[in-house]
Amino acid sequence: MLVAARERLIVALDVPTVGEAEELVEALAESTVFYKIGLELAVAGGIEFAGELAAAGYHVFLDLKLHDIGNTVERATRRAAELGVSFLTVHAYPQTMRAAVAGRGSSDLRILAVTVLTSWDDGDLAAAGIQGSVAETVARQAAQAKEIGVDGIVCAAAEAAAVRAIVGPDMALVTPGIRPAGAAKGDQKRVVGPAAAVRAGADYLVVGRPIIAAPDPKRAADAIVGEIAAAAAI
Ligand SMILES: O=C(O)c1cc(=O)[nH]c(=O)n1[C@@H]1O[C@H](COP(=O)(O)O)[C@@H](O)[C@H]1O
Hints:
It comes from Blastochloris sulfoviridis. The chain is an alpha/beta fold.
């Protein structure tokens, strides 16, 4: 993959206000160019902010994890495409993925299918009434996403190699649950270090708390970019 290491790190702006997100983007300006806006910031003005970041030349991942009736998903996806963001997430259910692909149309927006959340393990799947292990479920969803024409997969880096074998070289593999050595797991269950994620075939690494809650976010981001670069060079 020819994308520079600093473009492969996606910083999750999981903060309560646009003001705090702006401070982080400013602090990280020399280190990172790709930012994720998720549910917390989205409900606090983050969707408009996503459009502003994209207009300012940053890469933006709008993480809304859409899942609804097809008509609603298709129409919401069309509006997201107008924001100029790069990635939009939907849950990896066939009807939902088909609707998002229809809504994306021929725009530059890329649809990412969220498979089994990285905060889940086999027990959480069983509790939700879903049969099969995490590995089996992610594999099934990845095959369906490819068949439907989705642009990328969100999974734990632990599944990245298996997913790559299923979807081939063209779909983007985006992996949250990244934890540098010594970082707290928090609520994540399927965690992998940055270098191991790259070696497993992840294209993009999503990192929130290990950067945004660090005493020096720029230093934390630089260390991860360094790990990505070193692992990608091997
Ligand atoms: O879609 C996502 O980005 C996502 C999928 C998933 O399975 N797990 C997951 O953690 N995420 C997101 O990735 C980010 C991870 O944040 P940290 O755990 O703080 O690094 C959060 O913003 C999550 O919403």
